């Protein structure tokens, strides 16, 4: 059958090289997305991600949607290799399709999707051929809010607020300080924007074009792309060496 | 972290949509190390009557991927009973690129015209990501064109404007990228069909520090009359 040629090729000439087959492991990502930040708020989950896909240090693609809705109840955000994210979306498409085909009134909730993703990521990690992504899975089903994360090595957990990549270092401290139960939509958005602004200042692979997604019992909405205002008006920025002549 | 910098790929390839179709462009240099193995290669390859692919990176890898996709598209067209869409062609390319990412080193741009979506361009870089874009650039020469396109690109160009933009861009990249050179080839695809164009190096505009070409110094000396040479 023609399709056998395009299936995943784990064998091939590299097998002749001995037990350490080069073709059996992904070594490094090529086209990557940066941080995703998400938090629980009063009515559900809010998630933010910029629209950049970098190629090494080049900001190559600047209109990439890194958050997608999954079924009726979940939202998936991804950082890391975009081709692997696109493949994960295909797996999830199939998962949701089969779920719908049962036609039994049930639908997979965020907990189930998170569990599925964890298994996929962990099993790939065990084969030394990971899907090079950090995934954020959020959703609401039957009034229960859910927010979880899976890393490329299969580490998974749930929390009230999560972030991937640089967001772990820059956004989570802000969230730890300022997040509280029952944030309003406006406060949630402002808090996410505060995190995204810091990432814009300090993450080289971030761009000023982002989307914020909201998921509630009613469903998923992903905002149009927009840009944040940034502040550069510190007097210390004007003339950084004025207080210390000769310094750099 | 082991984030390896992207491989430098010999070539400049471009795909641009315009109001009614697409224009694909490429240089013609194939190099093995410092030697130019082929100075007039054709990097724009046909997949179907209405879909073409621009190849960059490893010549062997890009050729074999194109061959496979051409084979599958031919079968697909027969079974479908009508021309394949650009989207299907691009996704077949993605399938092969993604599933063999450990072995392949080729960046590709798929462009064409179909009756459902009109002119479309899909970029498929290393790794097998697929991105639909109004225009795409690839290959080592493309590094020099990001700024150019940020400024020069506009929506709803005419066919001639689009072709001129592509020609200008490939020519600019060739001026600065050692791995790009030779001639500029363009392929225009729209509802009327496919037109191939060929712009030899000496027909392109001259950029900074580039000079008009002559057959010989003697022509220059004779043209300006019996004046002393300036050294």
Automatic annotation (TrEMBL), chain A:
Q: Which CDD domains match?
A: proteasome_beta_type_4
Q: Where in the cell is it found?
A: Cytoplasm; Nucleus
Domain of life of the native organism = Eukaryota
Q: What UniProt keywords apply to this chain's record, in alphabetical order? A: Cytoplasm, Nucleus, Proteasome
Keyword Glycosyltransferase assigned: no
List the Gene3D superfamilies: Glutamine Phosphoribosylpyrophosphate, subunit 1, domain 1 (3.60.20.10)
What InterPro entries would the database entry show?
Ntn_hydrolases_N (IPR029055), Proteasome_alpha (IPR050115), Proteasome_beta4 (IPR016295), Proteasome_bsu_CS (IPR016050), Proteasome_sua/b (IPR001353), Proteasome_suB-type (IPR023333)
Q: Which family does it belong to?
A: Belongs to the peptidase T1B family.
Q: What does this protein do?
A: Non-catalytic component of the proteasome.
Assembly: Component of the 20S core complex of the 26S proteasome. The 26S proteasome is composed of a core protease (CP), known as the 20S proteasome, capped at one or both ends by the 19S regulatory particle (RP/PA700). The 20S proteasome core is composed of 28 subunits that are arranged in four stacked rings, resulting in a barrel-shaped structure. The two end rings are each formed by seven alpha subunits, and the two central rings are each formed by seven beta subunits. The catalytic chamber with the active sites is on the inside of the barrel.
This protein is called what?
Answer: Proteasome subunit beta
Organism of origin is Hevea brasiliensis (Para rubber tree)
Automatic annotation (TrEMBL), chain B:
Q: Which Pfam families match?
A: Proteasome
User: Which keywords fit this entry according to its UniProt record?
Assistant: Cytoplasm, Hydrolase, Nucleus, Protease, Proteasome, Threonine protease, Zymogen
Catalytic class of the enzyme: hydrolase
As for subcellular location, the record says: Nucleus
Gene Ontology cellular component terms for the protein in this record? cytoplasm; nucleus; proteasome core complex, beta-subunit complex
Gene3D superfamilies for this protein: Glutamine Phosphoribosylpyrophosphate, subunit 1, domain 1
From the Swiss-Prot or TrEMBL record, give the protein name: Proteasome subunit beta type-6
């Amino acid at each position: 059958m023609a399709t056998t040629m395009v299936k995943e090729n784990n064998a091939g000439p590299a097998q002749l090289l001995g037990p350490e087959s080069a073709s059996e492991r992904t070594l490094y990502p090529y086209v990557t997305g940066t941080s995703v930040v998400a938090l629980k708020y009063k009515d559900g989950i809010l998630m933010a991600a910029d629209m950049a896909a970098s190629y090494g240090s080049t900001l190559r693609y600047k209109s990439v949607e890194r958050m997608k809705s999954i079924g009726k109840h979940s939202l998936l955000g991804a950082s890391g290799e975009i081709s692997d994210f696109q493949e994960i979306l295909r797996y999830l498409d199939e998962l949701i399709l089969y779920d719908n085909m049962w036609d039994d009134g049930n639908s997979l909730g965020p907990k189930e999707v998170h569990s599925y993703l964890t298994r996929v990521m962990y099993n790939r990690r065990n084969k030394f051929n990971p899907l090079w992504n950090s995934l954020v899975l959020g959703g609401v089903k039957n009034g229960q809010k859910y927010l979880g994360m899976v890393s490329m090595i299969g580490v998974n957990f749930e929390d009230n607020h999560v972030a991937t990549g640089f967001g772990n270092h820059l956004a989570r401290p802000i969230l730890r300080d300022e997040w509280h139960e029952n944030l309003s939509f406006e406060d949630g958005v402002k808090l996410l924007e505060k995190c995204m602004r810091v990432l814009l200042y300090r993450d080289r692979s971030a761009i000023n074009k982002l989307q914020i997604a909201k998921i509630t019992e009613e469903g998923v909405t992903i905002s149009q792309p927009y840009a944040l205002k940034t502040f550069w008006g510190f007097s210390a920025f004007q003339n950084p060496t004025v207080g210390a002549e000769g310094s750099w | 972290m082991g984030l390896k910098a992207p491989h430098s790929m010999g070539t400049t390839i471009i795909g641009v949509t315009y109001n009614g179709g697409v224009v694909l462009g490429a240089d013609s240099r194939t190099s093995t190390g410092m030697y130019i193995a082929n100075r007039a290669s054709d990097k724009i390859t046909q997949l179907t009557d209405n879909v073409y692919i621009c190849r960059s990176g490893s010549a062997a890898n890009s050729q074999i991927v194109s061959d496979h996709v051409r084979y599958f598209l031919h079968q697909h067209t027969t079974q479908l009973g009508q021309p394949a869409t650009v989207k299907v062609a691009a996704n077949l390319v993605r399938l092969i690129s993604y599933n063999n990412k450990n072995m392949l080193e080729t960046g590709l741009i798929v462009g064409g015209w179909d009756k459902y979506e009109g002119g479309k361009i899909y970029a498929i870089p290393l790794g097998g990501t697929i991105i639909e874009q109004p225009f795409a650039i690839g290959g080592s020469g493309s590094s020099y064109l990001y700024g150019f396109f940020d400024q020069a690109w506009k929506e709803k160009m005419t066919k001639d404007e689009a072709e001129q933009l592509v020609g200008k861009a490939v020519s600019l990249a060739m001026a600065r990228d050692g791995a790009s050179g030779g001639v500029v080839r363009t392929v225009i695809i729209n509802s009327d069909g496919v037109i191939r164009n060929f712009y030899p190096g000496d027909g392109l505009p001259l950029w900074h520090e580039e000079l008009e070409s002559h057959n010989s110094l003697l022509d220059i000396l004779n043209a300006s009359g019996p004046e002393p040479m300036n050294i």
